[in-house]
Amino acid sequence: MSMPASPLLHRTPLYDLHVSLGAKMVPFAGYEMPVQYPAGIIREHLHTREHAGLFDVSHMGQAFLEGADADAALERLTPADIAGLKDGQMRYALLLNDTGGIKDDFMTARLPGESALYLVVNAGTKDADFAYITESLRGIADLAPQPGRALLAVQGTKAESVLSQHAPGVADLGFMRAGRFTVAGAPAIVSRSGYTGEDGFEISIAATDAEWVARALLAEPDVMPIGLGARDSLRLEAGLCLYGHDIDEGTSPISAGLAWVIGKRRKLARDFPAAEKIMAELFAGTNRKRVGLKLSDKAPAREGAEIVDAAGAIIGRVTSGGYSPSLGQPIAMGYIATEFSGDGTEVAITVRGVPRQAVVAPMPFVPHRYKRKSGE
Amino acid sequence: MEERFSKSHEWVHLDGDVATVGITKYAADQLGDFVFVELPQAGKTLKEGAEAAVVESVKAASEIYAPLSGEVSESNAALSSDPAKVNVDPEGEAWFFKLKVSDRSALQNLMTRDQYTEYVKGL
After folding, report:
1. Over the stretch B28-86, which tens digit does the pLDDT of each residue have?
2. B80 in helix, strand or coil?
């Protein structure tokens, strides 16, 4: 018997709903996912910024890390301050390898009154992450992956008003806070977070509740279903890293501009993977840096495009690039030699052999609109 | 005027020895929102199957190939200022370029509309 030519793709619990909404389904991280719906990427993108969008992110990996020493255990693998997480607090963190390269970026939260840590990792890396965490923390903490949970995101200006209709109390959550709520009748873990730069929520529910909850939210006139295409353009405008593109095992957190992820206590204790190397980079600087780039004309620069100086010498490379629907112009992020990394530096990006004018620009490209509560 | 289609989703309208070339509605729908087009200069000689133009959607860049050999006589400058025209009327107003073809008979190697419709069904 011969093996199938292409690996079987997984489907999320919302697959049938996506198809019924007219989504164009594409393979992504081993899943068949909606890249766009009939409205198209630009309209989906702008609708999220102006109103609210519903995203199926059930392909991402959810897990609980259990054990009396779960905090200390997780700190072996990340430079983030896990022990310092308050009840109901969520944090963006990095999973580092032994040489300080980034194995993944992830979210972790301490749900109010619960001892286990809640983790959300990237879809493409979840199998490797879960194996790595399980193996590295054997005997200290137990990882319990949650393949039976779906994950939805509601993002946008109207996210709070929309979700509050179905989940009383979520308006009281501040940015990067999480807790257990009931959403459209279903028990849920809700965090005020997301990856679009907008205010919004992520909702973890049982896979069996996913379609019902999604339909209830989509019934709100402010809510439009949003595919992976607009998810990518929204996160690029927000200046957020896409794992496997903007950061990977060969990237240092310092050159990626993610030094803020390292907890203050952790910097002093130097007790995270490759701490000496990373702290040396933090003080001495790195020879390249992740920067934002705005192109002067209409040709988008894509991942892999070379960044060149006035003499045509290669000084960097684009790691994410595309068209910004909010700004109406191409934008990109990439790594550039540190001497060229200052905002306003004029460079060129080679697109199909033609150098196109670009300027190093501050990120986010579109201001974040997170809802921080006072005192946080 | 004769109409033909290529496997790479270009349409051709041949009128005398002038071929007007664009992309099919199927291709436009697949690629999504267009944000940029790069068109060939008039006077450029293109061989059948050669890369002739580029169209960029929000997601990705796609090449447009010359379905026939010939010399570019005109490009549709209106697309440069408004690439979204390709989403609106891909098989009409949003033509990409015109070619003065060297061998009219090569048209017969391309698909008729019925053949193209069948071809797309199989994709």
Report:
1. 999 999 999 999 999 999 999 999 999 999 989 999 999 999 999 999 999 999 999 99
2. helix
* CB of B123 less than 8 A from some CB of A: no
Cβ of residue A46 closer than 8 Å to a chain B Cβ = no
CA distance A376 to B82: 45
Chain B positions in Cβ-Cβ contact with residue A33 (cut-off 8 Å):
none
Q: Which among B83, B61, B80 has a CA at the least distance from the CA of A353?
A: B61
For A313-333, the pLDDT digits (tens) are 999 999 999 999 999 999 999
Contact A40 B60 (CB under 8 A): no
Mark yes or no for CB contact B32/A325 under 8 Å: no
Q: How are strands ordered across the β-sheet holding B10-15?
A: B2-5, B10-15, B18-23, B97-101, B70-75, B45-46
Nearest-CB residue to A36 (from B32, B38, B54): B32
**Is residue B35 less than 8 Å (CB to CB) from chain A?**
yes
At A15, the pLDDT band (50, 70, 90 cuts) reads very high
Give the three-class secondary structure for B82.
coil
User: Alpha-carbon distance A228 to A226, whole Å?
Assistant: 7
CA of A354, closest CA in chain B: separation in Å? Answer: 11
User: Do the beta carbons of residue A301 and residue A332 sit within 8 Å?
Assistant: yes
Go through the domains of chain A in sequence order and give each one's CATH number: 8-285 (3.30.1360.120), 287-361 (2.40.30.110)
CB contact under 8 A, B56 and A323: yes
Of A35, A233, A298, the CB nearest to B36: A298
- What domains, with CATH codes, occur in chain B? 2-121 (2.40.50.100)
